[in-house]
Design brief:
- The chain has two domains: 154 residues, Ribonuclease E inhibitor RraA/RraA-like (Glucose Oxidase, domain 1), CATH 3.50.30; 37 residues, no CATH class.
- α6 runs antiparallel to α7.
- Helices cover 34% and strands 25% of the residues.
- By secondary structure, it is of the alpha/beta class.
Length: 232
């Protein structure tokens, strides 16, 4: 799997997720209403800024004990994580109905996954131990904050998962911040940062016009037509 350089990853970290979303539209590689998670998945630590990393996937449940295996699937999850390039993001689907019966993610699991090169987790499940995890610098994107782990355990590792309405496969490039979570298509990943810069420049012209004493509706129409011509 082709991965981005440190410089390219750092460039993506300097851009907000909405701007990345706009830049992806520029390439016309997917419909504009696809590729991002629903508002169900919330950023728990918005002050941490942008999270970028390659997805490591798993499926969890917490409504009943895991009595079928001699050893937990966590061991396989750790092996799976180390097969994915760093930086890594755990993407975990909670299949309880309804989800968030128990939290797989707290202080202990965050420390273990940070040691394995993960920068955060994205889950439609619950999270806890917010003070300790925030101090650790490990990011949480989740549906709920809850107090108990209940019978939390993994039931699958390394398969495509569906979180916030978005199917995520192992190795997908995650970009997320306080606005939400999206996947950057692999075929354009190395070009997105530069496209985002161009998008920002174009939008800045529009906003500067709106603030200008020379503003007119005709100039606004012309500027919008120019943006539409770029596919934005």
């Amino acid at each position: 799997m082709k991965t981005l350089s440190t410089k390219e990853l750092n460039a993506l970290r300097s851009i907000s997720t909405p701007t990345v979303s706009n830049a992806i539209e520029f390439f016309n590689v997917r419909p504009k209403n696809e590729g991002f998670m629903s508002g169900e998945i919330k950023c728990i630590f918005p002050d941490m800024g942008v999270m970028v990393g390659y997805a490591c996937t798993g499926v969890m449940i917490a409504s009943w004990p895991d009595k079928e295996r001699e050893e937990p699937l966590d061991f396989r999850m750790w092996e799976h994580i180390l097969q994915i390039p760093a930086p890594r993001v755990a993407v975990i689907q909670d299949i309880d109905q309804p989800p968030c019966i128990g939290s797989l993610w707290g202080d202990v699991n965050a420390n273990m996954h940070k040691a394995l090169g993960c920068v955060g987790v994205v889950t439609n499940g619950g999270v806890r131990d917010l003070d300790e995890v925030h101090e650790l610098g490990f990011q949480f994107f989740a549906a709920q904050v809850i107090p108990s782990h209940a019978y939390d355990h993994l039931v699958d590792v390394g398969s495509p998962v569906k979180v916030g309405g978005l199917v995520v496969s192992p190795g997908d490039l995650i970009h997320a911040d306080k606005h939400g979570v999206l996947v950057i298509p692999r075929e354009i990943a190395s070009e997105v940062a530069e496209a985002a810069r161009k998008v920002e420049e174009s939008e800045r012209k529009l906003t500067n016009l709106c603030k200008s004493p020379d503003f007119t509706v005709e100039k606004l129409k012309d500027e919008l037509k120019r943006l539409w011509g770029m596919g934005l």
